[in-house]
Amino acid sequence: MVTISSNLLYTAFILYLIATVFFAGSIKDKNRTKQGPNRWASIGLWISIIGFAAHLGYFITRWIAAGHAPVSNLFEFTTFFGMSLVGAFIVIYLIYKTPILGVFTLPVALLMIAYASMFPREVSPLIPALQSDWLHIHVTTAAVGQAILAVSFAAGLIYLVKSVDQTKQSKQRFWLEAVMFGLVCTLGFIIISSSFSASGYKAEFNWIDKNGQEDVLEYHMPALTGPHEGKLITKGKFEPLAEMPAIINAKKLNTVLWSLASGVLLYLALRLVLRKRVGAALQPLVKNINLDLVDEIAYRSVLIGFPVFTLGALIFAMIWAQIAWTRFWGWDPKEVWALITFLFYAAYLHLRLSKGWHGEKSAWLAVIGFIIIMFNLVAVNLVIAGLHSYAGS
Amino acid sequence: MKEVKCDCGHVNPIGTILCESCGKVLEEKEKDNKLLDMRYEGSARRSQTYNKTIIDKIWNFFSSVKVGVWLIVITLIASAVGTILPQEMYIPPIMPAAEYYEDQYGWIGKLYYDLGFHNLYSSWWYLILIASIGISLVICSLDRVVPLYRALNKQKVSRHESYLQRQRVFGASQPEDTDKAFTMAKEKLKSKKYSIREENGNILAEKGRFSRWGPYVNHVGLIIFLIGGMLRFVPGMYVDKILWIREGETKVIPETNGEYYLKNDSFILEMYDKEKDNEVFGEAIDKAGMVAKNYQSNVTLYKKQGDTVAGEEADLKKVKDYEVKVNKPLKFENFALYQVDYKLNELNKMSFALTNKKTGEEYGDLTVDLNRPQDEYDLGNGYKAEVVSYFPDFEFDENGEPVTKSRIPNNPAFVFKMFTPDKPDGEISFVAIRQTIEPFGDNEYKLAFKGIDTKNVSALTVRKDLTLWIIALGGVIFMIGVAQGSYWNHRRIWLRRVNGEVWVAGHTNKNWHGLKSEIEAALDGTGILMPEDQLQNQSEKKS
């Protein structure tokens, strides 16, 4: 069952990849005479739907195999997030019929699924705190809400790629490129960690933690930054370039450095091939896009996603927290970041009431909102870690 | 001047920008704009009209959306700062917070502590921020909802020409047969669930007006929620106690006025077992080593019968047996008991044998209940042991004197006085785990260690929270309001006959795409042309 499940996930991944190509093709298609989606786009849509069905198949089979909803660790959650993103995209595509949305949303979903698979993938049993029906009620609703909000990020990005002037230097041009670079770095992380894990790299260190205790640490990438007073005990492996003080998590820093390095390399390679900024290279894709429509898609996704997010990530979360942790609110970092996300989109919705905040400024806000969501997913689990930290293992 | 009278005869309150009835522009400075600012229907808001007294100024400050957004953003940033380092309630109680932050995080930690960020969410300034958001919610809503309600209620069907022309969606055309076109459009709009009003042959089709109240409904929900949060500080509304209870022990449940007692029958800790549990977990269990499966306290709840004098044993009546697990609290009246912590194998009893050191002959066993030791243990035939001192959690202090760190028997030690027929004055012996000291020289007898008996201890949180229903009510109202405002749109379509032409205008509070496709569908085949989106035309001209 678990094997069937992971095969379905692979299938979905490949199908999303193909669908992206079709959506991109539908924009390049020179023969388009009338407005609206053409054949390429409808094929792309069907492939996305089949991919989504396969993804749903992964979810259901894994649920059956484990006996609980597969949203209990970082791999499962992020995969589900990717699935919800595709689902949200399909729904919003059916409303607005804009193939370009697929060209931007599906790659984000692909990155998400690939990123998810960098984490341990075993089916893990539930610790007592997670043994509740609220696990699937709370987590899935929160993820769906976040995914719908993420569609507004894709729409915002489309808006910016079109509206930001690539011919002259500006803050906007810089930051748009920075967003692109961030996406490339994620890809870099995926490539570098899957290559090292495919090659089976493993180096163990004896080290002293911040409480003065001796411990063993296992690296799966060559150590650029070694642990505090670390001694390499696996023979023939790479000696660290620099030793970190005990307070810094040298292993995580090492992963970040590798991801950045591969991100930079990948980005430079892209620039060499494209001979222009990534943002500029994407511009032809968005040439025929109506900015007002994209702005509306972004706004609409927030309007649809915000109540779902609030319901899942705050209200259901509070109900469950009252049952499992004795109090509905406890200022745990994950809770606080859900509140921050809520406040941010509340601010967005209020700003939309004022003049001058439609269009480009809204698009930037949509990008920032997505960064907050990703921060809550990645950094809060891996760096800050509180009561929700079991999600990181 | 108290009121503004429009050409159409309608009397508007002072400060009105667009006539409530016909929509004509009343405010001079709005007259040159190509498109109308339709926010709040151009109604007279107190905050835009008065600015003289101090009350006006405070009102205007809090009624501004800009101020509201700033409050939200500041709260957002402050909340984020609170997650940089763990809050005080999450640090382990190994040392005082002041030392802990510096010890663990260096100067950053010290700064964080000195600025009070270790208790950020209960700091006075954070609470002021939340309170300001609450005030802003109330004033913003009142400032807008009343005039908006008036404007939407008083609107008439035939709007002023200048009002229609300056809508975002507007168009004029000449169908062949206006009457027929109107009848057709009317039918189509009706089938799209618009409610139709007619006046002098003009049409106003409107739907989803109730979505305009969504924001105000959700603000009411939020205010109720915040009030619920405040009520926690009212005495008697909220209880947060912890009850450590040993197996076999019966204790009064705190904060129940001695009404309820709890007996811990047993505590159970279960781990996942590769052999017995779902085999797909095998790999994960191997990796993690041990994964907890269940924390459970089997308890019996008792209620006290009648009155008891202090010191008297209470007369208890069993209410129910229950298995308290994580995610499965025991509930009674307004209380809930939660499984939150445990301690395995706490020392409970120690037994000794009074032994002659030379012959090894034993003269009887004694078992000491470590939580309630007796003063003396009579073994019969003139043999007895007297407990001179007891140190449940023994250590030597800096002067080399035995002291106890706590009342929990983690490392029990005793000073016994042993009486035997041949030593009627007794011999003093100091007995600790794996250690016997004879302070007054060689004794003839000793208390030989025979064994221990351990028990598990459950920790249960005792919770009462009478604010929960208010918080829940606030949450429900908030969700209704948010859904109402997000998932429905207020759409209006005006059809008006002007000098043989048909003027069409449309307005929606959001989702113009949807409005336009509905207008297109309604006008299809009527001969009336689809109106233009004037805003889009403007922006296209620019680019």
Describe the structure.
The complex is a heterodimer of chains A (393) and B (543). With 393 residues, chain A is mainly alpha-helical. Chain A has two domains: 2-166 and 280-392, no CATH class; 169-275, no CATH class. Chain A has twelve helices and five strands. In chain A, α6 (171-198) packs across α7. Chain A starts with a helix and ends in a 9-residue tail after the last helix. By secondary structure, chain B is α+β, with helices and mostly antiparallel strands. Chain B has four domains: 45-152; 157-208 and 489-542, 2-Layer Sandwich (TATA-Binding Protein), CATH 3.30.310; 238-344 and 459-465, no CATH class; 350-443, no CATH class. Chain B contains twelve helices and 24 strands. In chain B, the strands form six sheets. In chain B, strands 4-5-22-23-3-24 form a six-stranded antiparallel β-sheet. In chain B, strands 6, 11, 12, 13 and 21 form a five-stranded antiparallel β-sheet that branches. In chain B, α7 (178-191) packs across α11 (512-523). In chain B, 31% of the residues are buried. Chains A and B meet through α9 and α10 of A and α3, α4, α9, β9 and β12 of B.
